[in-house]
Write a structure and sequence with these properties.
- By secondary structure, the protein is an alpha/beta fold.
- The chain has nine helices and seven strands; from the N terminus they run βαβαβαβαβααβαααβ.
- It has a seven-stranded parallel beta sheet, sandwiched between helices.
- Helix 4 links the parallel strand 4 and strand 5.
- The protein is globular, with a radius of gyration of 17 Å.
- It starts with 9 loop residues before the first strand and ends in a 7-residue tail after the last strand.
Length: 251
């Protein structure tokens, strides 16, 4: 077991049934947090995360809910508080992508991505802030993307949502700093969460040529960054965007 930097704390991770969310939930639990594992549709996958945490000596619970329903964030926060006797860490990780060029993008593709990736995150933050303000402490970490900083062709909706989430991160950080709450973002670059299987070898090589470190990142590396921002080691960091991108953005 890792040093229990997060012992005694309760976390809620949205979109935690697979990929980055699974890695984040496992890492927070490894460092001592009790974790609410949110899922949208993949209940069995979320329960598998809970089981994996339990097998490693941790504590977790699966919590389902459609984040596009405005009532869901409040219900999730109430449920995790009742289960864990508090809420100290919120990780907004849930998101979708509907990639296509702007000229081909339908209104529903724009709306769905903005609503899920930005609107739902706003409502989760608003719900989580109520208990955090009362206890005068808390950590909010939003999973954004380098696409929100540099743009990406074919991802106008996704980049806009992530750029908006960066702005939301900074605005919220200013609003709640006096209450002992920090709000930060982690911006993954090209992370190998099924990416190499989805792309051909030539596409992967083109991506690697753009990354100074010369490799794709891992979900565990993103999770480690989230856990750092959730810990006391990051107590004097707020309103910050931590890029986990192998140096891609600096090029």
């Amino acid at each position: 077991m890792a040093e229990a930097r997060l012992a005694g704390r309760v976390a809620l991770v949205t979109g935690a049934s697979g990929g980055l969310g699974r890695a984040i939930a496992l890492e927070l639990a490894r460092q001592g947090a009790a974790v609410g594992v949110h899922y949208g549709r993949r209940r069995e996958a979320a329960e598998a995360v809970v089981q994996a945490i339990g097998e490693r000596g941790g504590r977790a619970v699966a919590l389902g809910g459609d984040l596009t329903d405005p009532a869901t964030p409040g219900r999730l926060v109430e449920a995790v508080q009742a289960w864990g006797d508090g809420l100290h860490i919120l990780v907004n990780n849930a998101g979708i992508a509907r990639d296509t060029l702007i000229l081909r993008m339908k209104d529903e593709d724009w709306d769905a991505v903005l609503e899920t990736n930005l609107g739902a995150a706003f409502r989760c933050i608003r719900a989580a802030l109520r208990p955090m303000v009362r206890q005068r402490s808390g950590r909010i970490i939003n999973v954004v993307s380098i696409a929100g900083q540099i743009g990406n062709a074919g991802q106008a909706n996704y980049a806009a949502a992530k750029a908006g989430l960066i702005g939301l991160t900074k605005a919220t950080a200013r609003e709640v700093a006096s209450r002992g709450i920090t709000v930060n973002a982690v911006a993954p670059g090209l992370i190998d969460v099924g990416l190499t299987e989805a792309l051909g070898p030539e596409q992967v090589r083109r991506f690697l040529d753009q990354i100074p470190l010369g490799r794709l990142g891992t979900a565990a590396e993103v999770a480690a960054a989230v856990a750092f921002l959730a810990s006391d080691d990051a107590a004097y960091i707020t309103g910050h965007v931590l890029n986990v991108d192998g140096g891609l953005v600096m090029r």
